[in-house]
């Protein structure tokens, strides 16, 4: 019986020819035959029996197979290698919030440091090798780099910005792009959402459907203009903000004098570690039976970013890419990054330090269309 089914299905597809052998497709056949039940079928059949895109094995019709079917990671959804564009975009714009302002990067609460920002930063003497600086090194003749004199043209981040501000910033980029030598945007980096998830409590986070609508409104602005439609739209996930609590939770200054005034109470309120034993605080993806209420709240905060908000950022953008509205858009997932003590500044204990921007720049670069081969890495 098993042999006959395997022969029938083969490696070309299954009974409904969708490319995988699964129990739902064969259930009717087996029931009519009166033979093997679904548990046995599940144990003996499945996509893993035959080569397929995403199995981690390079097959004859593939140029790559990285074990998934996600685009934007060097190997696309059809297991074809994604070739990095060369050498650099015309220019680089940034849309964002206080991270994009470089707020408190040097431990000075409330001060902006656009020169140190991971995306459009321009201080070649600091430790941050920003995307802007990498492109300038790659193609100084053609790339219109950001610097102190042109920063207002290229960096449109606003401290405190939420997703509802995306459309306004996108309109500002569209207007500014016409003032560049190319007359259009070559690339736009977007990092928004942190202020939507940071809230007085879990219920006060931006409504996910509203978040989605606001995100679409901003993407629509970029898609509607000739100045931005064909730009490389580099959308970042919301980072795993949980780790900044872990990085600074034993710092007396942060816990007692700063965090009570930081508007992210659903993460930072009652900052003492009440997670269970066995280093449960280092496992934010799992709520353990002996975790305390504050630990559970922080892990629920972490899960909301992972399971609700970041999937909106990724899946909506994929629609724009696939239907051609933003053909060069791609999503960069940095949620796996764990921030250490030196990545969070010692002033407001919340924003990335200059070392944190260095880490963001490196991670965004290595996960960008240009960074897969990292020919422009720091010398």
Key phrases:
four-stranded parallel sheet; mainly alpha; 35% helix; 13 helices
**CATH domain class name of the largest domain:** Alpha Beta
Number of discrete helical segments: 13
Low-confidence runs of at least 5 consecutive residues: 1-10, 12-48, 375-379
SSE order in H/E notation?
Answer: HHHEHHHEHHEHHHHEH
**How large, in whole angstroms, is the Cα Rg?**
24 Å
Residue share in helices?
Answer: 25-40%
Structural class category: mainly alpha
- The CATH architecture of the largest domain can be given as 3-Layer(aba) Sandwich
Q: What is the total tally of β strands?
A: 4
CATH superfamily of the largest domain: SGNH hydrolase
Give the termini separation: 62 Å
Task: Give the count of structural domains.
Answer: 2
Strand order of the largest sheet: 1-2-3-4
Short description:
The chain is mainly alpha-helical and 379 residues long. The protein is 35% helix and 5% strand.
